[in-house]
Amino acid sequence: MLKQFVPNEICLKCDACCRFVQQNSRYAPVLLSDSFSDSTCRLSLKPHKDIFICQNFSPESNSCNIYAHRPLDCQLYPFMVTYNKEYENIVLVLDAKCPYAKVITGHPEFNYTSLPHSFVMPYQPDTIKITTIKNLGGFKALALEHKPLFNKYLNNSEYSARSFVNIYIWSDLFNILWKIIDNNLCVFYEYKNEFNMLISSPKGMHLLKPGGRIENIAEKEIKAFEGAGIKIHKNTDEYIYLAKDIAELKGNRFSSQRAAKNNFIKNNKFIYRPFVISDIDECLNLYSSWAKRKMGTHDSVYHQLIADSFSAHKKAMLDYEELGLTGRVVDIDEKIRAYTFAFEMNTDTYCVVFETADTTIKGLSQFIFSHLAQDIAKEAKYINTMDDSGLANLKKAKLSWHPHRTLTSYIGTV
Description:
414 residues; alpha+beta; Aminopeptidase; eight-stranded mixed sheet; four-stranded antiparallel sheet
C-alpha cells in the first residue's frame, strides 16, 4: 500500500473525497482485482442525503472502512492517472481541487504502464502535470472531443458500426485507439491479448499481427482488401426499416406488433417522455433487472453480450447530450419500465443504439419502438437497428419487424 500523501488532519476536514453527484459516476474508485461490481470494475455507490457515497465510506467518521485495502486510485489521490489534452500520452497529474495540492511536491513510484486502460481517466484541465507515464506511439486514445473528426470521415457510411457513437460507447470496455494513415481514419481496439481494427483501409494493415482481424468491412471494400492479401469472411447483417412502417404498424405484416402495442395502451397508465440525466440510475437498475432475467436463458455468448453491454449503456447515458442521442423512457406507476436511445447517422437514417423494456409488461417493447419511430419519422426515412450479433433469437426478432433491407458487413483476417 502506498503512503498517504495528505496529512490526516486535512483529510478529515475535506468534504469532497468519496462523494459523488451520480450513483453511476465515472469517477468512482476502480478495483484492479478479480472482484468487481460491474464490467467497468468500479465500486458501487450508495445514496446519502442528496448525493452518493462510496460503499466503503463512513460519513459519520469521515473515514474509509477498508482503508488498509482501499483501491489504488484512492491511495494515489490527489495524484491521478489521466490522458493528456491531446490523448497521445498517459500522464500523472495532481488534482488542483485538493486543499493540500499546493504543498505536495513528490510523486509515487509505481509501474503505471501496466495499468488497464479503464484506470486511466479522461483529460482533466484543473490538474498539474507531474510526468509522462506512457506514450501511445502515434495513436490517440478515443475521447468525446474526437466526435467532429470521426464524423468528417464516417458520416457517409451506411453501417451503424462505423459511427462515432457506436464506437465511443464501448470505450470503457475496450481500449480504443486511432490514427490517420494516408488520409484514412484507422480505428483499433485492444481487448485482453488481442489487437484488432474496427475501421480501416489497406493502408493500416501493417499495424496488425498475423491473425489480427479487420472488422466492419463494407461490401464495396472487399476487392481492395482481397487485393492486399486479406482473407474475407461474411460477418453479420444490419437491419434497416422504413420509419413510417414501424411508426404506423399498418397491414397484416404488423398485426401481432399492432395488437401487442394496443394491448399495452389499453391496460396501462403510462407516461412516454424524453430521457433526462437524472434518469440514469433508474435506467441502469432496469437494465440490471432485465439482465438477471435473461441470464437464465440462452447461451454463454449471449450472457457475455449482456454483461458487456452494461458499460455501453452507462457511457451512452452519461454523455447522451454531447453524443446527440435521442432518449425516450416509459414511466408506469412513477417508475421507469422501458428506455430507448437513437442517434442521427446521416440525413435519412437514425440508428436505434439500444432498447430495454420490462419483459413482464406485455406490449411495452412494441410500444416504445413504434413510438420512437413516430418521433424519428419526422426527421428521417430509415431506422437502422444494428446487427444481430450472430444470435439466432435476435435475428428472428429483428426479421419479425420486416426490415426494408439488410446490410452485410465482413471481417478480414491478416
